[in-house]
Specification:
Layout: H1 5-15, H2 25-33, H3 39-45, H4 57-67, H5 72-85, H6 92-97, H7 100-105, H8 110-126, H9 136-143, H10 151-161, H11 173-182, H12 191-197, H13 205-215
Length: about 220
């Protein structure tokens, strides 16, 4: 028997009833500094520093799609042309109204064009303004329904845009490589192996992931 619209709405309210935990850098710093493996790295690197994001969630997600599989400079150039092709503002209406040839000329591949248009078409149903009130699983469920947005992009949105405290992006090779460096491993764990390894770091796995990235660019002599 299928759920009624009223029961589905009630479930959605339940998922949004408690304000999701956001990353608190000072608390994460203290907690991870006490970890036997992360501690020396945390001391060397300092508290987590996540830049504030000024974009609206739709513009942020569109940018994430444009940036996929591109080096930083090339991605920034194409994204700049994409924004210019839309008259300076990235909105669902402008994307759907823009001629395909104009967006392709800005540098979007056919796949990315299809993805940003799918995002624009689904924006009303996604109700992006509600995402800050929803739990992590529901945010990911909504985002991955869009073409071109997979778990990795959803995790980056949770971590950097919504600044959630306990995101564990095991699909990110940089996080796995950083984990290997922090723990003195010869090879990074595989994705399935990585998932349970972060359990001891709850509820600060977002900060742990951030330290894994930073460990790849930090020199530290750790006694073994």
């Amino acid at each position: 028997m299928s759920a009624s619209p009223r029961s589905e709405a009630g479930a959605a309210r339940g998922r949004a009833s408690a304000r999701p935990a956001v990353l608190k850098p000072a608390e994460a710093f203290r907690a991870l500094r006490a970890d036997s493996c992360f501690g020396p790295w945390v001391e060397r690197i300092g508290p987590p520093r996540l830049s504030r994001v000024a974009d609206e969630p739709f513009a942020y997600l569109a940018q994430a799609i444009v940036y996929q599989q591109l080096a930083g400079a090339a991605a920034a150039t194409i994204h700049g042309r994409f924004v210019e092709a839309l008259g300076g503002r990235v909105t669902p209406r402008r994307i759907l109204a823009a001629p395909e040839a104009r967006l392709r000329a800005a540098g979007l591949s056919q796949g990315k064009l299809a993805a940003v248009r799918d995002l624009a078409a689904k924006a009303p149903r996604l109700r992006l303004a509600d995402l800050p009130r929803l739990d992590d699983g529901e945010v990911e469920r909504r985002l991955v329904s869009v073409r071109g947005i997979g778990p990795w992009t959803a995790h980056m949105f949770l971590l950097f845009y919504l600044r959630r405290a306990d995101v564990w992006p095991v699909g990110d090779l940089g996080v796995r490589a950083g984990w290997a460096r922090v723990h003195g491993l010869a090879d990074p764990p595989r994705e399935k192996e990585m998932a349970p390894l972060g359990d001891r770091l709850r509820p600060w796995r977002s900060a742990a992931a951030w330290y894994c990235w930073r460990a790849l660019e930090t020199e530290l002599n750790v006694p073994r």
